[in-house]
Amino acid sequence: MNDDPGMRRLHFRAWHRGTREADYTVGGFFERYHASWNDEEIAWFERFMDEQDADIIGWALGTIPVPDEWKGPMMDRFLKLDFVKIEN
Q1: How many Cβ atoms from other residues are within 10 Å of residue 25's Cβ?
Q2: Hey, how many other C-beta atoms are within 10 angstroms of the C-beta on 47?
Q3: In its keyword annotation, does this UniProt entry include Chaperone (predicted)?
Q4: Mean pLDDT, residues 67-73
């Protein structure tokens, strides 16, 4: 992992959302992309972590529209869901 305490905290929060579905989506997104994030993208993710799991999953599944404040390259990557790995 990373020696930066802030990134370790984000890693933990990403994988301990409260629901298994959110853990896989948010945690998987963090795992796949965090190493390449700049300060602006890290700040986006930190704000994203404050959203409700039900909203995040709804956006990911397309059952509720993504609010304008979240639209952009980071959300575009998130919505691909190509990073979700579910193991038995």
Answers
A1: 23
A2: 11
A3: yes
A4: 96
